[in-house]
Amino acid sequence: MDKHNSSELLNSDFSLSKNASSDSLDSDSKSSSLNSKHGQDSPHVLGDIHLLDGEKVMSVARDVTYLCPYSGPSRGVLKVTNYQLHFRPTDTAALQSTLSVPLGVVSRIEKVGGASSKGENSYGIEIFCKDMRNLRFAHKQENHSRRGIFEKLQQLAFPLSHRLPMFAFSYLETFPEDGWLVYEPIAELRRMGVNNDMWRITRINDKYEVCDSYPSVWAVPAAANDDLLRAVATFRSRGRIPVLAWIHPSSQATITRCSQPLVGVSGKRSREDERYIQLIMDANAQAHKLFIMDARPTANAVANKAKGGGYESEDAYQNADLVFLDIHNIHVMRESLRKLKELCFPQIDQSRWFSGIEATCWLKHIKCILAGAVRIVDKVENHKTSVLVHCSDGWDRTAQLTALAMLMLDPYYRTLRGFEVLIEKEWLAFGHKFQLRIGHGDERHSDADRSPVFVQWVDCVWQLQQQFPTAFEFTERLLITIVDHLYSCRFGTFLFNTERERAKEEVKTKTVSLWSYINSRQELYLNPLYWGPAAGGGPASPAARPQLVLVPVASLRVIKLWKALYCRWNPTMRQQDPIYQRTRELVALRAQLEAAAAAAAGDHAARQHRLGLTPPPAPSPHHV
Amino acid sequence: MNEKKLVQNFKSYINVSPLSKGEKNGSLQEIKPKLLNGELVTGAAHSVVMLTPLSEWDRGRFGSLFVTNYKLSFVPLENSTTDEYCQRNFLLGAFDVPLTGVGAVWLTDGGPIRRRRLMPYGDMPAKVKGLQVVCKNMKVLTFSFANSPIDNGRKIALALMHHAFPKRHDLLFAFEYREPYYPTLPSDMNMFHRPGDWKRELERCECPHWRITCINGTSDAFMLTAGETLIVPSSVLDYNLMESARHFRSGRVPIWVWGRPEGAALLRSGELLSTEQSATAESVLLEQVRRSHPKLTPPHVIYLCGNTFTNTSGANVLPPLTTLQTSYKKLVELCTPTTLRQFWNQDSQYYTILDESRWLRYVANCIAFADDAAQQLANNVTVVLQEGDGVDYCAVVSCLTQLLVDPYFRTISGFQSLIQKEWIALGHPFCDRFGLPRPGSPKEQVKGAAAAAQAAPVLLLFLDCAWQLLQQFPAAFQYSETYLTTLWDAAHNHIFDTFLFNCARDRDLAVAKNFVQRPVWDWGEQFSEQDKALFYNPLYMGTKPASTTQSQRLSQSSLGTGSAGPCQSRLQPCRVVAGVELWAQCYERWLPPLDAPAAGPVQYQLHNYHARAQIHQLNEKLSSLSILSSRQSNGSGPAPRVWAVPRFFPFSVSRAEAAPDLDAMQVSLIDASQLLDSQSLLNAPD
Fold first, then answer.
1. For residue A382, what is the DSSP state?
2. CB pair distance less than 8 Å for A354 and B577
3. Which of B568, B618, B679 lies closest to A597 in CB terms?
4. Residues B510, B619 within the same domain
5. Per residue in B126-140, pLDDT tens?
């Protein structure tokens, strides 16, 4: 461990290295050679702490020791603002132990030891974070020295539990672009060609009265009138009726999403629901079948009948094939990630690394989700058949599957902006309960509703990126930034559970969108290897776009552990990865030469023009 | 989904009606394998079906199977464009395996499931319905003789078992190959054949306190498995060496392999024998080593397999060779499933199996040892590696250490010189490790179990470690992953003499009997320019302009950690198990379910080859514009071509939608330093 001394960590060329204790949040520390003018986040500098617009220091504790699990204890000053916890060692040689942790990532805070505890550094506080790390601080035992900071931390890290506003509502920074405008539901539906003969846009949910967790704008089969929609809503859990997620541009096969039908133990039926499903199938002239992909394991789907839910019986839905995708529920996933944290933090037990990975089952869950999405893609793309996806409520596993399938099917979502649209649409608008699943500002850390469903999906996206390195316009850095700000509460994007709540709290006017921040510093996230439709420059013919549809291999031989996310606090696991940097240099050099060539050619033409020469007709064979 | 995908390119021949079979038999007799000069067919079977890997029963290709004195060769009845797609070898077809590449042969009942292992010189059943050949590079070939004339299966099995496991070294095909050889090795490669070669290395490293001794080439030789030239402390006398050698296994006293101008050196030695004076002998020699350091710093000894003398062993020492071989066998098992069911079964407990093999732990341990050694060298402390006979793990760790500290060895020529030095000149026993017969009279032959106990994939362990370094420092090496994989394949092609002998002495004896040496490094013997272009890493930029030549002195590049960047002098690798990965291209390339178009890290390579090609093109255009002012230049040249190659390109067994334009990639052979002038513009701080 000692070999990673400070000079090495400060080694600028490997600034991509994830060093243990420096600011994680985002990768701001990972400044690359393309450091932009937006790279600097902090307009206000107070002493050594970088404050954001709207951020205030609320409490300061001196003589605190940060017990870094990698570089050992270091003494310094701990500050708490309304946004972050900041620790700076007094010894300038130990600057690698500087910490800047947004309070949003704090899951729980505990006192360690008592006034009478023996042993060095035995008295202090421990902070458990949502981003796979724990922080230990030791205080002096005299005078209850930790009390002030502990109480302040409790209050500021869990504002909701103390009836305080979230930091996102105090954050004042402005960006050149307004990220709230990235997603416009009607425009996105138009992009997919809706309205058309078969699908129409409806504002039946304008006041969120039909379904309070759905967006205000839906696309539904044109043949279904509003009365039918209302009737179907009564038969679907929480009124989440099947609506359009994606439509294939040529075959018109669709992906629709909903919640489970309210079948119950008695096996209730709804004629309206059956008719509505038939209409979804009829809207696709290419197939006489519809696949209903139930994300749950069969046993769970059956068990849900006892709670009034269930699944579509094949008797009632004549032309539908029901498939169970065997993806486990949020509690299983939470447990799996907890085990993964144990494996990765703080020290990696080398002797049981691989068996440990196996035991967490995390990669097996990822495999299940990828395999499920591949099945959806296969039906839609290869069989031109529409697919209806649901789980129990249709906001966790359903969102994972539809968003992943759409990412595989539609290259638009693999661009930076398209990806933002995808998250806004499939996750935020369709009511993935971010507030409940993450527990923003809420001290109830063991709440059973918390679960890393979204992070798991981001992991799946990363798997796709790994498998298809040239298919995405953005790099893993964007994904890590999104995960960081999923917790940070600096932006309004991931606050609250539904579009309705966000509208009520005026999130769009009172907070900043994460996309404002990201889009103002896009170049940090762009993938130099991207060969998207635009790269060829020519018309978007299929030949120029070889990778319209991505079909990943859902095998553990290919699915990898995302060490850059889960193991990033461990300095021995730092990745030395100049691929992007070197590629960027090559690409920049190419651009430079192209410009020079164009300029030289221009000069040339001008000179020849002056001399009255006509250029020879054929280009030199040299260049062909 | 996956099942469907992998078979769609193959026709099914299994269910052909008996009628058409008869017809085909007639034409099948015409099929002949392509033979090399000196190659003879020793067995043939017709109407053989080669089953598509992992396709269960019903997919495959019709053709004929031959055993020659060089290879096992399947010649398909109909050619398909697929065959032309992968890396092409002038000496071997797409479905050929050199006999020394055959690892294990299994008897099957015609299907893909293994039944019984066939042992060399063992019994052969009266009827052979099918054979499965597991190659040393983890390729699996499954043949069914269900449609063949009676006895064909048994005949070919006998021929294969007889020729693939020869009893005498001089039965290997390298002794029969009649093709003349005209060497065209790169001029900056050091073969470490002659004393002058070692002198050059000593001068390159600027180590004045060491001297060359040729005593090992005389009748007083004490280190029989090494070449004639050894480098030892200047202060030590040949007589002392001979005396001390008695106390070291195989006479392996510590010898110099690398050094830095500041004084620290890297040495390798064998273990001490438990004789009475051995401890004294060691300390006397180590004292001489200390005196060869200008600051008289005492050397640091690293015991790779634990210190047997004091009987202490650390937690992370390297295992006995038999354990390494067991580990490798488990790895092979994991990477050679024969049915889809087995493939997915393994998938469900992939990490458990991987863990049980322990292979990646050994890889991580080697890297950790090398990192320790590099750390000592950076602190200007001399390092002595010590292990068994000093020819196995010593070679692995010594090579890795030099890759970490000396940028020259990160070039292709340098890497090849490194292998010549550490593995060939210093006598890694390739015959024993690869399970080949030893040269010499049959009396000396090590029999059966004893021979098997010597087999171990030490070279593969090194190549795997080198691949891990390449993963961690993708811009630091001139060679690519494809180069390393190809090298492993070529190690089992016994036309080349590089990996064919136990020691230099055996090679010299063979040469004296008119054996033609054919170094594997002459890649043009096997591959076209296009395929060779893929050996080059497009991200590599060299250390400094023109620094890749051997004449450059070490002192011109500093060893400190200060100079960062992809070309930094000392690489500090991640050395923990959690930081190493399975070498998918080498081990899993034959598994069709894993192959997918436009997937995998090879896309980085291709993208950058492409960018390089364009940069080269633009550079040419610019110079032509400035020099030939009368020549008109066309707007922007041809539009960039997008390649969609599969994950395991260029080894892929599945066909890609569009084969890449390999010609365009040839430019990557052009020295990278050409680009450096304009490159420096980009590196300048803004």
1. I
2. yes
3. B618
4. no
5. 999 999 999 999 999
